[in-house]
# Entry
Amino acid sequence: MKQRPLSPHLQIYKPQWSSVISILHRMTGVYLFINLIFASIYLFLLTCPTHIFETFVSIVRCTPYYFLIYTFLWSLIFHSLNGIKYFFWAKSKFMEKKYINALGPTILLLSILCTTFIILY
Ligand code: HEM
# Structure
């Protein structure tokens, strides 16, 4: 088959706050979905005999679970804060470039601060 040139994609664009936050929003949405599956398995295992639950806990202990809990919580907070922004955008509010460029880093920083605060206290 003849090799035809591919159309340009993400890699030709300079990263901008609007695109970076949009990509992060989708990625955190997918990550939250995966975590919900694990949370459901965890809740189901709570109803199983103790030795099955203990096996599950010992498997979890072999993973970097503090990192996983941190990233799950951060995803939830980031996705929710950014989701609230989308509700304003749906009303055509805060859509000017100056707001977009200010909201991106603010939401990112706020989500990291909130997550760290919750984990530590
Ligand atoms: C565990 C809970 C959640 C999961 C699993 C989840 C999952 C997702 C996924 C996978 C997407 C991407 C859809 C796409 O880009 O095609 C998405 C988009 C979205 N989520 Fe969530 N979400 C959750 C919680 C929330 C919360 C709490 C909010 C609001 C406060 C929210 C607001 C939104 C909005 C507004 C979009 C659309 C963004 C767009 O138009 O590109 N989500 N969500």
Remarks:
- Helices lie at 17-46, 50-61, 65-90, 97-120.
